[in-house]
Amino acid sequence: MPLRHIQEWQPALQAEGIPETLREMILDNHSLTQRLKQLHHQEFFVRVLCHEWQEPISEEKAFLHCDDQRASIREVLLFGSGKPVVFARSVLPESSLMGDNAELLNLGDKPLGEYIFSQPDLRRGPIEVAPLPARQFNQRINVTFDKETAWARRSLFYLREKPILVCEVFLPVK
Predict the structure, then answer these.
(1) pLDDT 10s digits, 31-57
(2) Closest CA to 12 of 166, 130, 148
(3) Could you give the domains of the chain?
């Protein structure tokens, strides 16, 4: 499920409207997995919604500066204290999955962040953010959103100089 209804991504440091309760977490360049584990006192787990070969949408290809027709696309929910707190969509272009990066295909229910932040050859590009209707996740989780806004962030990670797109959507607290 590519993220829909994202009007315009904007640089995170210039973004307006990010709730103060999320601002620090959204702007943090470090591991979201580690932060969620600390915040939820280790009551953290990942539920894989899908992980399959697909063609990325045109917006994802443009952001990745990649023409790959196939990518390993992984969508997960991150749970903290028993509740879904983040929806994440990772786009791993086929050309980025050579050599040691092929390990990314075998994560199972392990967090992507836990793996990539443990790698010495990792760098992260700038973070972009956008608000979006939370209701688009109603079919995926056991919570019903109506008019709530979710905040998404995306950035490119370069693992061994190969790009990986990670988009994380911070779900409203219910």
Answers:
(1) 999 999 999 988 999 999 999 999 998
(2) 130
(3) 10-170 (3.40.1410.10)
